[in-house]
Amino acid sequence: MTNINKSSERLIATVVSNKRVGQYHQILLNVGQMVNGCKPGNFVAIKVGGDNAKMILRRAFAISRVSHSGPYGGSMELIVAPFGQGSKWLCAQIEGATIDLIAPLGTAFGIPTEPVRALLVGGGYGSAPLFGLAEVLKNRGCRVDMYLGASTGGKIYAPMEGKRSVNVLKIYTEDGSMGERGRVTEPIPGLIADGLVDVIYSCGPMPMLRAISHIVAGSDVVHQCAVEESMACGVGICMTCVLPVADSEGNVSMKRSCIDGPVMDGSQVMWDLVGKIPEAHA
Ligand SMILES: Cc1cc2nc3c(=O)[nH]c(=O)nc-3n(C[C@H](O)[C@H](O)[C@H](O)COP(=O)(O)OP(=O)(O)OC[C@H]3O[C@@H](n4cnc5c(N)ncnc54)[C@H](O)[C@@H]3O)c2cc1C
Ligand code: FES
């Protein structure tokens, strides 16, 4: 049985900075030695609303990047979209505020031992953990191309400094307001047909992850995706976050995306059954 990430711990972290970047907030937290256990793909569960809040459920956020040394010691960056009550509270926290968090949680992206041609695909704030991943892959000698997509340009997160870690960065928006018009998944079949990709790493909305899994099906391309299933506890207790996943023999079972994920093998997620109650096995 899978267990909670062994490196995880609870910490009261201090907000170092909180900057607006497009429609997102780039929040830097001082987390000290915790950065040593954080890997690209891991997430953090944050208590939102302060001590007296009625919001009892922690909110999950992908760890965008960590820095081991800097003026503040170990720090962790989050990219947060102000959406509902919890994320808006987090986006309102100013420098010096304290945040109650548990991290690092969940699985991390698998890093190849040999240099490969990697395509990183991000949807909306899903690009956040991909820049840290790109740095790790580059240091392993991989070719790293990154394709980012969103409905409109304001929802693209692509910081200037992140562009240094990739060979090619392409942007796709559905309304054509930034980069090329269209969906970020559209060029992928051509790249696969031309033999230009070995591994796809993806993070973003579930329909995008599902579409990529369907595109790579039948090819030799490996697809590692960071799923974003609604979570309540974030630590493996409540079963809110379960997804149907097949093992190597094709047996399907419900896996908790907070501890068996968020990074999963896209070919093993039973996308057509996500959100449905599985039939009982005889
Ligand atoms: C692995 C993972 C990584 C993520 N990474 C990011 C990221 O990098 N950036 C980002 O902006 N967002 C991220 N999210 C989404 C984030 O966790 C929140 O869902 C989002 O910020 C909206 O939360 P909210 O509190 O603003 O909205 P709300 O609508 O208040 O709550 C959002 C979710 O919390 C749960 N919830 C809230 N209240 C209740 C209740 N009373 N009972 C039951 N459930 C409730 C529900 O699942 C709901 O969908 C991630 C989610 C996951 C699972
Ligand atoms: S969120 Fe509770 S088990 Fe995954």
TrEMBL record:
Instruction: Tell me one GO molecular function of this protein.
Output: metal ion binding
Q: Does the keyword Electron transport apply?
A: yes
Pfam families from the UniProt entry:
DHODB_Fe-S_bind
Annotated SUPFAM superfamilies: Ferredoxin reductase-like, C-terminal NADP-linked domain (SSF52343), Riboflavin synthase domain-like (SSF63380)
Residues annotated as coiled-coil are none
Which cofactor(s) does the record list?
[2Fe-2S] cluster
The family this protein is said to belong to: Belongs to the PyrK family.
Which protein are we looking at?
Unannotated protein
Q: Which organism is it from?
A: freshwater metagenome
